[in-house]
Amino acid sequence: MSIFSKSKTITAAAAVIAVAGLISRLLGLVRDRVLASQFGAGDILDSYYAAFQVPDLIFNLIIFGALSAGFIPIFVGLLANEDKRKYSDNSTAWDFTNNVISIFGAGLIFFGVVFYFIAPDLLAKILPGFNAEKLALTTAMARVMFLSPIFLGMSAIVGGALQSYRRFLFFSFAPAMYNLGIIFGALVLVKYFGPIGLAYGVVAGAFLHLLIQLPDLIALGWRYRLSFKPAEKSFLKMLKMTGPRVLTMATNQINLLVVAAIASTLTAGSFAIFNFANNLQALPLGILGLSLAMAAFPVLSSAFAKKNDKEFETAFVSTFNKILFLMLPSSLFLILVSRQLVNIILQTGKFEAADAVMTSVAMSIFAVSLFAQALTPLISRAFFARQDTMSPFYLSVVSVLANILLSIYFSEKYGVLGLAAAFTVSTVLNFMLMLLWLKIKAKTVSFYKILFPSIKILFASIAFGLAVRAIIFVFEKLDLVNDISCCLISGGFGSAIFLIVAYLLKVDELQSFARIVKSKFTKRNNSEIKIG
């Protein structure tokens, strides 16, 4: 099979994304370990993470907001229309792609130039708790980092086209390349340029993020041709769909800026601890949860375009239950072994024991909402596939307001742990509101088909948690301090119990995964929804 082949089922596509996600997340752990070891939870890493705020704001508003809601459904529609007219070169789809690249590329360059000059004053307002020296370093890093949205923006457009073709391999490995660039910056560039080398590493990673995807797109027949047509019909349609999504991203970015402002007033290192804890708890999220949501998006878009309600519901419910099947035990595992994981990954070099304790507690608080973090992107994509971008916006405003108010209140009492708690509460609230509203809007989505399997998965997950805790208890009683052994043995024993209970309860998701694995060896066709 060619490395340029497309995935045939949602799970096959998700498997490709998950493997690449695993590699990327492992590199992310290496990245965090390097950063923690070299700099600890202090001013330099506070500046480093704070420097991302405005570049990320622009990228998410201009590029991610547009692509996540509008680009793929329109690109898929253009491909479908061209297939019906028996066009062989997909010229309309490629023209649309080049037009988006040209217009959004110009926009990113413009905002980059503007930001370079206003950065000092803007960051001083965003980060009121930073002293002059810390603010100067943050500004210098942010100015360099603003090159990264240009590369990431182009990469996101390329990746959107690849997803539309169900070509997930190189698209999925792009984040791994991004992490490699950051690691290179921390290990090599910092030696020559000082802390600003971290920012150069971010830019290098963004360039590699784009570079790895280009050969796959070129293999599909794409060639860049300058096209600057803001009034073109498909582009205007994308903007119309994008508007509400941009507003949604804007509210989320305002939320992040408020959290950054609050974190800047807390103890030095709070920003770093917040990000370390968030990165660790998100490990299974990127590997398992998001991969399924991303793989399902083209299927949901295609089902809605064909007005096939049954296919839409089957794809959504099946993916929802699979995500829950993977995320609930993952959440419990992260909560139960948070201290051991932080010791293994972060507690080295300049990262002190007190920082490790605080990070592990914050990580446990984050992990409570892991299931909601994983399912919300799927629900969002269900709305986007239905070309409804307003509903996620309205609901995000509610959850963002809740997070801001709770962050202000909790941080006064609990510091950085209060920020983690506010995030968890608001994330679960957003999930519940979005699922309820999707049921109201898309009447074909059955709550029964979600609720009944969820109860069985919950029971199996509780058995998993009890098994993991039993192994940890044994380690504590025997005074064994090998954190790696504790995680491996408890995780393995818990997984075995989880699978046994899931089998006894006849959890459909276990049987589905088993059929897929079996089909790989027997070469039989499985019953999953095809996406190609």
Short structural description:
This protein is an all-alpha fold. It contains 21 helices and no strands.
Describe the protein in words.
- α3 packs antiparallel against α10 (233-264).
- The chain starts with 9 loop residues before the first helix and ends in a 10-residue tail after the last helix.
- It has a domain at 43-250.
- It contains 21 helices and no strands.
- With 532 residues, the chain is mainly alpha-helical.
Name the structural class.
mainly alpha
The succession of helices and strands, N to C, reads: HHHHHHHHHHHHHHHHHHHHH
CA distance, first residue to last residue? 15 Å
Gross morphology: globular
Runs in which pLDDT lies below 50 for 5 or more consecutive residues are 84-90, 523-532
Largest sheet: none
Report the helical percentage: over 70%
The number of helical runs is 21
Overall number of strands: 0
Question: Which structural traits does this protein have?
Answer:
532 residues, mainly alpha
Give the helix/strand layout:
Layout: H1 10-39, H2 43-51, H3 53-84, H4 91-126, H5 132-145, H6 148-164, H7 169-193, H8 197-211, H9 214-219, H10 233-264, H11 270-281, H12 283-305, H13 309-336, H14 338-345, H15 353-367, H16 370-385, H17 390-414, H18 416-441, H19 448-477, H20 483-504, H21 508-522
Helix pairs in contact: 1-7, 1-12, 2-5, 2-11, 3-4, 3-6, 3-10, 3-12, 4-5, 4-6, 4-10, 5-8, 6-8, 7-8, 10-17, 11-15, 11-18, 12-13, 12-16, 13-15, 13-16, 13-19, 14-15, 14-20, 15-18, 16-18, 17-18, 19-20
